Amino acid sequence: MAKVKSKWICQQCGYETAGYLGKCPECGSWGSLVEEVQFDQKMPNAAANEFINTEKPVLLKDIHIGEEVRISTNISEFDRILGGGFVQGSLILLAGDPGIGKSTITLQTCGQLCRAGKKVLYVSAEESASQLKLRAERLGINSENLYIYPQTNMENIKKQIEEISPDFVIIDSIQAIYSNNVASSAGSVSQIRECTNILMHIAKSKNITTIVIGHVTKDGNIAGPKVLEHMVDTVIYFEGDKYKTYRMLRSMKNRFGNTSEVGIFDMQTDGLHEITNPNELFLNERSQVAAPGSAIIVTNEGTRPLMVEIQALVGTTSYPSPRRVTNGVDISRLHQILAVLEKRVGLNFSKQDVYINVMGGIDVNEPSADLGIALAIATCARDVVVDPQTVIIGEIGLSGEVHPVNNIEKRLNEAAASGFKKAIIPFANKIPADFNKINIVKVKRLSDAIVACITSLES
């Protein structure tokens, strides 16, 4: 009889220990160690030798580099973040909050692939076949090349992949799949690692493109250890505001293309629709009446410039300690900008609450938004209005200087195409002499930018 052993494994980072610990010494998380039972037995020889690589070392000069065959999804926003389409034999992780639309975008992609003549196996570990059929009818998907397989056992899934020999495999979701080779329950670190490892070997050995759907924790991280992200070729996050209809696909890792790309969709009753002009979406939410504390910035999401509105509200506090609240902006970034405004401009916020909101629910993490945030706060504090036809671009240093940003010409072209007449940019940014699409005002310091936006309104 096999000897039963147990060990405690951190569900956040995969750290292993023989006994229980309240705090993981590796990642510092509390209460994340779970006991998992292990059997001291060897795998059968057939299973142990199945994925052994028998290739021999090859000289670098003798390696032939062939072009990876890409398969388009026929969804331009999805192709954008993939770098032009799926690479055959790649392993892709699609993660997002529950109900955000992961299964919807995946099922729509399956429909497009089947129309192109590809054979797809959709493994549903959380929904029955009839439930998937209802969603497919709502999305208008009815293909003879789409196989639906409600299953949670990895060995059975592997057997069906060998029998059907599909071009694409969808696993929805990896947290519900378990392998007989691991004694712990589905969703544990050991099970996720083992099942993903099997899928990786299948994808590489049989040249089958595999999409693995994963859930995220309340902190926004993929449930399971970080090793899951290292095992796959591409990591895509599906984001969105639950109070709005738009969704964003964000590429965080891509071995075959650019990272940090973003695809934007609109969630409707009949599925996800592409948004080819996201600036129109975000600027439509902008109020037509100019008000203090509003500024338009141009931020980069991958290779795409996005124009969003920054709103600030400054008011007298009734608490001993003033409040600092942000939505879409890092709170530490706001504290730094407020310190610069107090020290270099002379504004006093020690008895005032400050609220910052990014319209549209998008998160702005780029330093080029600093100048727009600062001007929104300063104009609200002095009850003046930023010219609604002006865009603001620039990073602020601790001494109050305005630092240059990258891709400035692309940002200005996007602002001009959206109908803006003026741009306040850093002095150090170089602009072609013949660039006349938009009126440019260059500033060296934060105080110069405040004067420029107020003068623009008066003129």
Question: Describe it for me?
Answer:
With 459 residues, this protein is α/β, with parallel strands linked by helices. The chain has 3 domains: 3-41; 71-276, 3-Layer(aba) Sandwich (Rossmann fold); 281-458, Ribosomal Protein S5, domain 2. Helices cover 28% and strands 27% of the residues. The protein has 12 helices and 23 strands. It has helices at residues 45-49, 76-82, 102-115, 129-138, 154-164, 189-206, 227-231, 278-284, 331-345, 370-381, 408-417, 446-458, and strands at residues 3-10, 16-17, 33-40, 70-71, 86-87, 91-96, 120-124, 146-150, 168-172, 209-215, 234-240, 246-254, 262-268, 271-274, 294-301, 304-316, 324-327, 352-358, 390-392, 395-396, 402-403, 422-426, 439-443. The chain has a 9-stranded mixed sheet, with helices on both faces. The chain has a 7-stranded mixed sheet with strand order 17-18-16-15-19-22-23, with helices on both faces. The protein has a 3-stranded antiparallel sheet with strand order 2-1-3, with no helix packed on it. Helix 9 (331-345) links the parallel strand 17 and strand 18 (352-358). The chain is globular and about 70 Å long. The relative contact order is 0.09. The model is unreliable at 41-48 (pLDDT under 50).
List the helices and strands and how they pair.
Elements: E1 3-10, E2 16-17, E3 33-40, H1 45-49, E4 70-71, H2 76-82, E5 86-87, E6 91-96, H3 102-115, E7 120-124, H4 129-138, E8 146-150, H5 154-164, E9 168-172, H6 189-206, E10 209-215, H7 227-231, E11 234-240, E12 246-254, E13 262-268, E14 271-274, H8 278-284, E15 294-301, E16 304-316, E17 324-327, H9 331-345, E18 352-358, H10 370-381, E19 390-392, E20 395-396, E21 402-403, H11 408-417, E22 422-426, E23 439-443, H12 446-458
Parallel strand pairs: 6-10, 6-11, 7-8, 7-9, 9-10, 15-19, 17-18, 19-22, 22-23
Antiparallel strand pairs: 1-2, 1-3, 4-5, 11-12, 12-13, 13-14, 15-16, 16-18, 20-21
Helix pairs in contact: 9-10, 10-12
